[in-house]
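Bumping with the actual sequence this time:
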Amino acid sequence: MRRSAFLKLCITIFCLFTGLVQLNITDVQGTNVSGDIESDTTWTLQNSPYIVVGNVRVESGVTLTIEPGVQVRFDGYYGISVYGVLRAMGNEDNRINITSNSESPAPEDWRNIRILSGGLIEMSFADISYGHYVAQILNSGRGIITHNNIFRNTYTVNIRSNSVVSNNHFSYNEYGIYSTGTNNTINDNEFFLQSMDGVRLDISSDNTVVGNSIFSAHMWGISLRKSFNNTIANNFVFSTMREGIRLTGSSYNTITNNTVSKCGDGISLHSSNDTVIFSNLLSNNGHGIALESSSNVTIANNTVFSNRFRGISLTSQAPSTETIVYHNNIIDNDYQGYNFGASNFWNDSYPSGGNYWSDYSGVDLNGTPSQDVPPPDGLGDTPYEFSLNSKDIYPLMEPWPFAPQLDDTKPSPPENLIATIDVERSQITLRWEKNDELDVELYSIYRGESEEGRFLDLWWSSRQECSDTHCSYVDTWVEEGETYWYYVVAVNLLGNDSPGSNKVNVTMPEHEPDTDSSTGPWFVISLVVVAVTIAVIVSVAILVRKKKRSL
């Protein structure tokens, strides 16, 4: 009886254990999907994750709905082609996750989501990673793509016409938003550490690019090529290796109320005519505004401050002509202005006046016949002269009050920086309190080898990557036995740096591999499996032997 009871107990334990293992395997496998979807279909949270094991096609007139919280994992270089409707609408508390199924994911693990020939994609509150093309809207396809977190892809969102891309966070991708069509709205997106462009319009017209923030693109922040009648407004571009805003072969565009700081150049036009550059703030770039072979451009109401080369430059082998430059505040640039082209004008007519030049030393006594307004009229009596005998005939005596105002207010320094070591992963995690100022957009992390030595700008951390109260950064470029010092600087929307936070230091210990695997969870599980299996085998053997004896 005892042996029989023990045998039953062992068999029960073994069955329960193997059942749990089988249940776990089933959960990981999820629901495999591929092929054509020919009727309305919903990918439910109950059957998630969905593993894409082949190309998926949503037929015309058919809707594929992805419920909040669903995971979609591509198990190879496959894509989803949509001729009907793809509706993937998560929410703040239950986001959709679209990613690779690889254990070691990388960009281009999966192909794309393509919207073709009258198809429509509505996607919101999704986390999308490791794709080649995230959303590729072609032909007459349309898209409404909002509130998504799009990271570590090659190409992200390609749109053709009549689409909306808004309030998304793009980070660590190669390319940002790419448009080759008309009537698109690209607004209030944030781009962080893009390898190439943030927003690019290529052979595009009648698009609106408004309210976007672009931090550290390796090429351009916003780029237009052969594009016409577009509005580029209220964007913030910070620290791109080339121009913050660049137009090439693009005319009849409006560039207004943008802030461009710490870029290769601020705003540049190449063979781009009939453009309005109005009320922008350009600081700490190479050139503030640079025109090459561009004509009929209006440059007015801008503040061009502390740029490393020229504040405003009109130049090229083919001169920039018929350009008017007036009511700008041109302040403390290495070279205030440069003009190559006889038919450009650096002032409006009297008494409207020209520009404010911070190094103008003239007086306002109404000393010329052409200045007949009762003194003082706010205009210098002698021209401001600069390169190649160029002149601003009516220089302003005071900064133009309607141009963007300089604000050098610094954010408060980040507080309570701490550093912790993860020996197993060979990394150091920094954590600090999030700034209260709403205009703080990112944090610069500095690292040095000693408290008083040289600190290098190691990386940036976006405010979007912070929690409600704290921000963090993981430094994986560390070596055993080395001591590292850190501090953090907050950067606001005008590119102003805060004082540094408190400094912290940590020393990476020498890592000794743990050769004792007897405490690992899988070792314990293995012992249990082996013990139960042996007990079952022994019990069965005893039972068989007992039956033989009874015979």
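The tokens above came from a reply further down the thread. The two ends are 19 Å apart (CA to CA).
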